[in-house]
Records
---
Amino acid sequence: MRILIISYYFSPDTTVAADRAYGFAQSLASAGHQVTVLTSAPESNFSADFNVVNIPNKFFVLIKKFFSFFSEEVQTNKGTTKSQTTSFFSGIINRFNQFRKSKGILFLGRMPDLADFWYLSAFNWIKQQPKWDVVMASYAPYSNLLLALKTKKQNLANYFIADFRDPWIDHHLFSGLPLISMMELRLFKKICNNTDHITTATPTLSKLINKQSGQHCITILNGAVVLKSSAPSLPFSLPSDELLIIHTGSIYTHMQSIDPFFTALKDLKATHTFKVCFAGNEKEHIQSLISKYQLENHVYHLGFLNKSNCRHLIEIADICLSFDLNNQSFPGIIPVKLIEYMAHNKNILFCYEHIDSDAASMLEKYNNKETTPYNTRDLTRALNRLYQTSSLTTKNMQYFRDYQNIDLVDLISNLNKNTKNENSPRSK
């Protein structure tokens, strides 16, 4: 079948959105389908069994240049600093960013979004192509789904599959803007009423969207990607007798209580030798905790790393960290990093606020883990127990993407059979 996957983010982006779309494309192409990915991501040199069409968001490129001007530093006789003009506007931009992140607008999933400016150029390309058998799109951004909906309604595709990595309505992190949220609800219902199938990333999300839309949902978990690792530059040498603890991916400071972990490390350093590496966001916050707990020779933040560097960290780590979100209203988040840790049979330290989350449930059948509440005493005990065990070197293939995408491949195969039956002489 000819399949169009619409994903604003795609490789070489390192986001979950890019990885999920890449996994779908890879699995469907391996099953013999003709897959094309439509994206705004820059062209990449990776080899694949599917086509990638890159249509840049020209408006975003202009906005990025405009905002980057106010973060530029200037050279003075006292060293490198910001000019008064750029400092003034930088302050305004920082305050706007705080508001943006609290509401989830502009590239965080809620409306309005700068990806909206990509919609017209992307659809102009779609309508020039032969009719697709299947169009598939994933939230977020919501423009992916709106493009797929228009493709189906204008009879440019036979089937439409809507995928959700996160909830759009009643988002667990972002409240959205009050009046615009009403418009988002209408668009969400319109998409759900016109899609042929809905897929989601977690069981709880399937239940939520089923409740919101009345539509049956198929859960397709995220999975680890098979790729070659490459070693990042580390700010320390790692002796063979030192324990390496790592955390890859995002940290949400308002929903993850990581201070007790640092308190546990401070207690542990008197009796154990270890190094802890964070790779991802919140560098300033981590560095402030390093100073607060006097862990300068033990904890490091490596900044944002590419996927192959993160994979290398996972491969050499003794313990991998996962901090569950403190959100009982929506426990349906399973971080991709947690699945990657499990796929590589690593010892996992899982910290939770509420033990009934999807992530905690997924870990129940996994042996190499310590699950502990967010408190110093339990964290210290868990680290001590993990210090005595070794990670396995074999991989758990059930946590890789090809295995997790079996239900999607089966779904497409059934759609293919339906199409053939509808076009058979007997059906006519």
Note: The chain has 15 helices and 15 strands.
---
Amino acid sequence: MGKGAARDHDGIDVRGKAVIADRSDEISAATRGHNAAAGALMIISVNDTRGRLYESYGDQEITSASVRAEEGARLIAEAEDGRGILKVEQKRFADHLFDLARVYKDAIPDTALAYRPTEDELAKVTSRYHGDKDVLSGGNRVYVPAREIGRGRGVGLTEYEKYPDVRTEYVSPPYGDSFWYENHRIGTGETPGIEQRGDKDRFRADRPCLCRQLVRSRAASPRFGPGFVSTITDTRGIQVNVPMGSDSGPGHPGSMPGNEYDAGTIALFDGERLGKQAPGRAFSAALPPETKPYRIVAQASRDGELWRTSTKVATE
């Protein structure tokens, strides 16, 4: 199918078939997927350079896969002469996964970088994701290297998840002061959902871990916790952050990022006088350098048709 442009599909009946298209800078992955989804059941993108291909097709209703350049050449040859019969098995949501990281301090060695840890070198994590009904969701676990190694910055990509679910995860123990950070949310795209942020996890290979994440069916409530910037006061003023979508367990602070700035407010009172009010769950304010009692009042709401509980929550 060429590079997957609309003109590459002209005059070709792809209904019920898989199409093969070359990846290119000329046609975006989303456009390539959209053009194929008009009739095909699957699109296979062939990388146009070395290595594996990673790209997003957006919300297209089509099964997608990618292959290396040499594998793609073989698939195209078999498709052209009719020899190839493609059998595909898909498992959309993993029941186990690996989060692996290997640290090279100061320099990357001039040797093979293949990382093949044994089972006893990895932490085994059993994660339970609760929910009152099946819902497409997303989350990830990001490795954050210590500041002396990587400036304390981690990079991660959200993967589709489904709740409720139980999953076994094998994780590399972090190096030194490095740690793993998790982020999971119910709902995708424009769907308002709960987002929960984890702590600085330092898993150990000799200690199995049971983690609980994302309770959809229980009540949500305001709760301070790791993952969100904490409340800070000093001689210049105050910074406040109240996660309003937390669940009933410690270490699971949460918010509703899809609409929290439309459906919630946070305010500072000096006695009965309103000092400052802002949408959402967080704000900062300058205060005079004197000791006085202040009140923070936060409230949030969520759609009762989507959520059975805690349609309105407040804290003071």
Note: The chain has three helices and 19 strands.
